[in-house]
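stage 2 :: seqdesign
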């Protein structure tokens, strides 16, 4: 049986990564093509919850929105909730240039999954600490994966398989938490 939940995203990589974890707790995802309304906020949770409610109000069935970002310590958390825009504009090389000669390479990724459902909204998050490599490595994944090395590994996310990335990643962690929560909550 299991549960089918809609997901509003334009990012197919996110769906694949989430599916690998969520299939283990019998959640199937169905991509819906509804443009997300993204409010401007530094808080990923606010962005995700607002977007999930807006999509739910159109769809009227349980729907997931995931919002993620890369937070670089030496840049006071930039690009954070603006990661999507920064990736499209200055990109990986822009981040590397900003960190040229900077010794403190610490950074973390955060993922917030908001599930708007028939009885309310629930929200889970996952975080992974790591560091920014000095040059891009690997061809897997998406976004800033070629320059992020999670704690406990020497590989960048882009050098890992999807399964390996999920073991470490913000999204994998948030998805595992979602599995735990959804088992206890009635969403229809
Ligand atoms: P949707 O909003 O349509 O879901 P998006 O790709 O724009 O897709 P976000 O708004 O969550 O998603 O943007 C987050 C950006 O942060 C994304 O474009 C990537 O550049 C980066 N990012 C998020 N998660 C990442 C990951 O696991 N690996 C690498 N980069 C990631």
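stage 2 :: out
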């Amino acid at each position: 049986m299991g549960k089918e939940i809609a997901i509003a995203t334009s990012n197919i990589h996110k769906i694949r990564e989430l599916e690998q974890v969520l299939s283990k707790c019998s959640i199937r995802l169905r991509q819906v093509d509804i443009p997300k309304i993204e409010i401007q906020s530094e808080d990923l949770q606010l962005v995700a919850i607002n977007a999930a409610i807006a999509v739910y109000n159109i769809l009227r069935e349980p729907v997931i929105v995931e919002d993620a970002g890369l937070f670089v310590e030496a840049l006071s958390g930039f690009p954070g909730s603006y990661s999507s825009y920064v990736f499209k504009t200055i990109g990986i090389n822009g981040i590397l240039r900003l960190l040229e000669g900077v010794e403190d390479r610490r950074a973390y990724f955060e993922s917030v999954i908001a599930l708007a459902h028939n009885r309310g909204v629930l929200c889970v998050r996952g975080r992974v600490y790591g560091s920014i490599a000095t040059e891009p490595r690997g061809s897997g994944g998406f976004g800033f994966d070629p320059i992020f090395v999670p704690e406990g590994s020497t590989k960048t996310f882009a050098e890992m398989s999807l399964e390996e990335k999920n073991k470490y990643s913000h999204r994998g962690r948030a998805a595992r938490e979602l599995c735990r929560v959804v088992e206890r909550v009635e969403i229809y």
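stage 3 :: structure notes
- The pocket of inosine 5'-triphosphate is lined by residues 9-11, 14, 36, 67-70, 83-84, 87, 109, 141-145, 157, 169, 171 (CB under 6 Å).
- The helical segments are 12-22, 44-59, 83-89, 91-98, 162-168, 170-182.
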